[in-house]
Amino acid sequence: MMWVLGLTGGIGSGKTTVSDLFSGHGITVVDADVIARHILDQGTPALAAVTERYGKQALTDDGSLNRGWLREKIFAEPEEKDWLNQLTHPLIRSQLLEELEAAASPYVILSAPLLVENNLTRLCDRVLVVDVSEETQRQRTLARDKVSSDQIEQILAAQASRNERLAAADDVINNEGTLSELAPQVKALHQDYLGRAQLKRA
Ligand code: ATP
After folding, report:
1. 13 marked as binding residue
2. Are residues 65 and 120 in the same domain?
3. pLDDT value at position 147?
4. How far is the CA of 20 from the centre of ligand 1 (A)?
5. 17 known member of a binding site
6. DSSP notation for 110-160
7. Where is the domain boundary, 48, 81, 104?
8. pLDDT tens digit string along 37-54?
9. Nearest residue CA, atom 2 of ligand 1?
10. What is the whole-number distance in angstroms between the Cα of residue 202 and the centre of ligand 1?
11. 200 is in an annotated binding site
12. Which residues cross the membrane (predicted)?
């Protein structure tokens, strides 16, 4: 098995910014959010199971998933959320494993906002947390997205707390500073990870 770095951080903490810097060093990044989104794409077994359970109301006119409808459904009915998670989580996990195994870089990054919450740390040799204060999370997310303050508060409440995340960390990047302060931190960690990955291969 490849040497896997788990990369996580709360909403707006800078995960994507950091993973782009690792990509710049030639490291493959597997993004759990991207996989989760595609697991219910048109033509997938998971979408067939959703359609079987809810009928055509779960689909848009072009036959793809009506994501807004499903979001409301599982928000209103927790048991449906459980059902959906039981359907999708094993599929997401096996797709993740497949992509981690297929990576051709010296080590591979598993980037997941809910790495800690969803127990994906089990797949990782080491965990790197991008850390900022909640205030900075709010400011940067508001500046970037068209989401409301209310939505940001909901997401913050649903994610692990800063301390819970830090408790799972082997390494921490503090991203309170400027963007230019990130690159040297990433470079130093990358050197360390190359050594660790080589030890695992040996
Ligand atoms: P999400 O989980 O919400 O997708 P993320 O953790 O991937 O977020 P990014 O998208 O990397 O976070 O960063 C959030 C926003 O903050 C982006 O607009 C990014 O350009 C900006 N940002 C990241 N780091 C810094 C920094 N050190 N200084 C200023 N802006 C930053």
Report:
1. yes
2. no
3. 84
4. 11
5. yes
6. EE-TTTTTTTGGGG-SEEEEEE--HHHHHHHHHHHSS--HHHHHHHHHHSP
7. 104
8. 999 999 999 999 999 999
9. 11
10. 36
11. no
12. none
30 has a pLDDT exceeding 80: yes
Q: Which two tokens stand for residue 76?
A: 């209103």
Number of domains in the chain: 2
Identify the residue whose C-alpha is closest to ligand 1 atom 23.
14
Q: Residue 167, exposed/middle/buried by CB under 10 A (0-12, 13-18, 19+)?
A: exposed
Domain boundary among 75, 104, 133: 104
Query: What is this structure's pTM?
Result: 0.91
> Do 42 and 90 fall into the same domain?
yes
Q: How far is the CA of 141 from the centre of ligand 1 (A)?
A: 7
Q: Residues near ligand 1 with C-beta < 6 Å?
A: 9, 11-17, 113, 140-141, 144, 175, 177-179
Q: Is 16 one of the annotated binding-site residues?
A: yes
138 and 148 share a domain? yes
- pLDDT tens for residues 128-155? 999 999 999 999 999 987 788 999 999 9
Residue 191 pLDDT more than 80? Answer: yes
Q: Domain residues for 23?
A: 1-27+105-202
